Model the fold of this input.
Amino acid sequence: MAKRPTIAGLAAKAGVSVATVDRVLNGRLPVREETARRVYDAARDIGYHATGLIRQRIEREVSQYRLGFLLQRPEQEFYKNFATAIRAACTEEMRFRALPAVEFLDSQNPADNAARLKDLAQRCRAVAMTSIDHPTVSAAVAEVKARGIPVFSLLSDFASGVREGYVGLNNRKVGRSAAWIISRIAKPGKIAIFVGSGRFHGHELREIGFRSYFREYAPQFELLDTLLNLETPSIAYEATLHLMQRHADLAGFYVAGGGMEGAIAALREEGARRGIVAVCNELTAESRSGLADNLVTAAIATPLAHLSQQLLGLMVTAIESGPADTPGQIFLPYELFISENI
Done:
């Protein structure tokens, strides 16, 4: 039977004295925040029985903020995973106490998005949001900003020049990377790209990057007109089937937004033996299965845990220090998954 971790063991793990651990546990004399956090991390690692108490002691000394997060499509696994990553980052954060209010949009209507943003901003000190880019949304961001509530755009930028900052991938580079993969593997033929909506700035940038790469480096391929799937699997399924039936020389395609589940299902039915090179975004159960079965060649994914951690710090900095003089962009490195590293 494993021995129960002791204070001495905790002190050794944290690299501090037993007296320091005692001060953290009992609130005796001040302890530097960095040291207290090290004790907490060590307690969590070894399963120390009073880990929760240590956290409570630390939280008494830090500021507390309610932060709002407004994500797309609650039925999609990716956004469920994103919500989980945000909540985990809030739980693990020790510099301040983050109280997350995570909500989902069930519409891409600009007026609905604007109304939900304004509602959430009434209950939070800062808001981060995934949204289409539309003047109505920009006006709502400006209204919220005027009340002292910073707004961050996530994954796909919107309200440029008004929002506090953008956090996500460099979408133009993502599109070019998808094109690089397809052009290196596929045989010359026709190439297609799916976007979710013309109003998602991130999808637009991915399409621009995708087409520009083929134009510069792979002119032997013929790019078809962009297909709109509204990030809906059933639409992507029908469109992919039609695409394969209409173009016998289809060499590859890229799903630049949501709806990849439908495209993968169509590949299972009609495209498995045709050698079509398919690239999608994000690693979910469906894309992982597609990779494992060699239906999907690569998945370009957002590092959700890293993004969430970065985002919390930016939101609280904006709360404490006020708006930045120049709204910025934080580009995170993407993750690339193939059948051999899932």
The chain has two domains: 65-169+304-332, 171-301.
